[in-house]
Amino acid sequence: MKKPQLNPNDMRTYPVQKSPCLTCPFAGREPLILADFEQYIENLMGNGQHICHSTDKNICRGGRDIQLAWLCSVGMLDEPTDAAFDRAIDDACPR
User: Fold this and answer.
1) How many domains does the chain fold into?
2) Is residue 2 part of a domain?
3) 15 Cβ contact partners less than 8 Å away, ≥ 6 residues apart
4) pTM of the model as a whole
5) Digitized pLDDT (tens) for each residue of the chain, 95 residues in all
6) Sign of CA dihedral 39, 49, 9, 81
7) Which runs of E-coded beta strand occur in 1-95?
8) Which residues 6+ apart lie within 8 Å of 44 measured at CB?
9) Would 50 be classed as within a structural domain?
10) How far apart are CA 58 and CA 8, in angstroms?
């Protein structure tokens, strides 16, 4: 099966890391220190995704988990899962 083409205007086309990398600034065992951590969190709260710093092509698992918890807490998702996120995006932005 052919991999879907990555589309920078549709984050649904990017794979999500299965688990946080060792140096994930959001959930790693040896987290990378971010100079402007609040800016990254603000981005996750409705402005975008965070691309994993160690792959430069996958969505960061640690950042996604923060995002899922927040979206669920404000009622935008019925559960904090990737599947619920994908359903909400499909409902809001059909392909």
Assistant:
1) 1
2) no
3) 57, 58, 59
4) 0.82
5) 566 688 877 778 889 999 999 999 999 999 988 888 888 888 888 777 888 888 878 999 999 999 999 999 999 999 999 999 989 988 988 77
6) negative
7) none
8) 50, 63, 66, 67, 70
9) yes
10) 12
